[in-house]
Amino acid sequence: MTFLAIDIGNTRLKWAMYDDFRPGAALLAHGAEFLEHIERLAEGAWAGLPAPDHMLGCVVAGDAAKRRVHDQIEMMLGWNLEPLWVVPSAQEAGVVNGYDYPLRLGADRWVAMIGARHHMLQQGPARPLITVMVGTAVTVDALDTEGNFLGGLIIPGHGIMLRALEGGTAGLHVPTGDVQRFPKNTSDALTSGGTYAIAGAVERMYQHLSEQCNAEPMCIMAGGAGWKMSPSMTRPFQLMNNLIFDGLLVMAQKRWGQ
Ligand SMILES: Nc1ncnc2c1ncn2[C@@H]1O[C@H](COP(=O)(O)OP(=O)(O)O)[C@@H](O)[C@H]1O
Ligand SMILES: CC(C)(COP(=O)(O)O)[C@@H](O)C(=O)NCCC(=O)O
Ligand SMILES: [K+]
Predict the structure, then answer these.
(1) Cα-to-centroid distance, 80 and ligand 1 (Å)
(2) Given 108, 141, 144, 246, the catalytic residue
(3) What is the pLDDT of residue 198?
(4) What are phi and psi of 93, to 5 degrees?
(5) How far is CA 159 from the centre of its chain?
(6) Which one of 75, 87, 102, 131 is separated from 180 by 20 to 30 angstroms, measured CA to CA?
(7) 159 Cβ below 6 A of ligand 1
(8) Does the residue 134 lie in any domain?
């Protein structure tokens, strides 16, 4: 019972093939393509894969990207798949969506929270939970001990922050620098500024959530640039590279399992 999970962010499409659609399924193959290379999937990374029985994805990159992926799936000989995409709802898998308009929440944030809460409950008792996703943009989302999504932050990712500063000034065209506590050149000042802006936002959310819930939150971080943040975080956290896929496996089991 093979399962294809797809996560289309604003920079890259990530995909993973599993031998089953339940948490803990074995990873058979995985990969990532920049969005401009979606058309390579069918004849490239996906060629030779076993035909998946089910597919579930989340997409925040717009309908055009989704349609281009449908075209790739159609090109796969022997695949007979109905592509299904996550739509954030009011409640799923023990998580309650507190957004003013639940549908407007990014599908990737919804899936990540569901994956993170499932992961936490596998490890021990329920606690407040923060999911941090460091991709094109950075999102910092808060769940209380009962699984209510209380709300979250959206901030620019490293790349967007740098490009915005480069574009809006005359003197900030410099190579990437290092993260320093007291940067003494422009490159280090920009790199450190972006990194601590993100780390500071997570710290604030940690304070807000621990005050709100009277308990120490668990913090789970993911996303293509999560590793860049690791040395600069102020609180304990777990890096989970497959967080979105884990969330999709939880949702897939609810849809097709049993
Ligand atoms: N090998 C890599 N390829 C692409 N982006 C990378 C890579 N390593 C780190 N990054 C960083 O990760 C970000 C993209 O992360 P990703 O999780 O793919 O974003 P999204 O989900 O928004 O597409 C980029 O902004 C880039 O700074
Ligand atoms: C915040 C995001 C742009 C993050 O995108 P990403 O960095 O993963 O490409 C995405 O989750 C999104 O478009 N959200 C919709 C708006 C919202 O969540 O409020
Ligand atoms: K993402």
Answers:
(1) 30
(2) 108
(3) 98
(4) 50, 40
(5) 16
(6) 131
(7) yes
(8) yes
Residues 78 and 97 in one domain: no
35 CA to centre of own chain = 16
Ligand at minimal distance from the CA of 194 is 1
- Residue 171: the pLDDT is 87
Mutation choice for ligand 1 from 6, 10, 11, CB with most ligand atoms inside 8 A: 11
ipTM: 0.93
Q: Using CB atoms within 10 A of its CB, is residue 82 exposed (0-12), middle (13-18) or buried (19+)?
A: exposed
CA distance 30 to 17: 6
Atom of ligand 1 nearest to the CA of 14: 18
Domain match, 107 and 47 both: no
| pLDDT greater than 80 at residue 258 | no
Is the residue at 210 inside a domain?
Answer: yes
Question: Would you call 108 a catalytic residue per the annotation?
Answer: yes
User: What gap in Å lies between CA 107 and CA 56, rounded to an integer?
Assistant: 12
Last residue of a domain, one of 70, 85, 100: 85
Domain containing residue 32 = 3-85
Protein residue with its CA nearest to atom 7 in ligand 1: 224
